[in-house]
């Protein structure tokens, strides 16, 4: 008999310890000459904070953080849930189906409320394939079994300081 996974929710990250917070990497517009800055920190309350400054100078304008997804259970999930506190900006939740640095991603936008914790539940069918800000056609649908990376991105000419606090990230079925 195979591994039984309970129906409902599966926690990917809860940020309560280094073991459950993942290894997140910063990728900013410096890869194309921009000067935006960001970092991610984990505090004692089990909250990860992605923050920094987006600059539109030098044709820049984005900051992002991403992590490898190495332990997704062997089942198909319907979507992702995330509990976060934002700053009123719009953020993209992104998934990639490969481990490469560049390439297309699937993204969904979330509008945060300033200083307000909110939980978002987004079906994978709402994620759109994009490459460098352009929507792509003729890509396969996003399914959890194909995911290799997950991340958050702020772009869309939202210059200035930003702060996104993450409590947990889960998949649901």
From TrEMBL:
Pfam families: CIA30 (PF08547). InterPro entries: Galactose-bd-like_sf, NADH-UbQ_OxRdtase-assoc_prot30, NDUFAF1. It comes from the Bacteria. Residues 13-165 form the NADH:ubiquinone oxidoreductase intermediate-associated protein domain. Belongs to the CIA30 family. This is Complex I intermediate-associated protein 30 (CIA30). It comes from Saccharicrinis carchari.
């Amino acid at each position: 008999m195979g591994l039984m996974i309970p129906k409902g929710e599966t926690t990917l990250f809860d940020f309560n310890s280094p073991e459950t917070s993942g290894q997140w990497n910063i990728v900013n517009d410096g890869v194309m000459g921009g000067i935006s800055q960001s970092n991610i920190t984990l505090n004692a309350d089990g909250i990860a904070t992605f923050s920094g400054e987006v600059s539109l100078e030098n044709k820049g304008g984005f900051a992002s953080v991403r992590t490898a997804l190495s332990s997704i259970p062997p089942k198909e999930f319907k979507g992702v849930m995330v509990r976060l506190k934002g700053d009123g900006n719009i953020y993209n939740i992104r998934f990639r189906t490969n481990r490469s640095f560049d390439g297309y991603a699937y993204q969904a936008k979330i509008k945060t409320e300033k200083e307000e914790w909110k939980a978002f539940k987004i079906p994978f069918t709402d994620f759109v394939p994009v490459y460098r800000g352009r929507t792509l056609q003729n890509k396969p649908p996003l399914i959890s079994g194909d995911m290799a990376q997950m991340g958050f991105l702020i772009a869309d000419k939202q210059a200035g300081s930003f702060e996104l606090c993450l409590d947990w990230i889960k998949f649901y079925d």
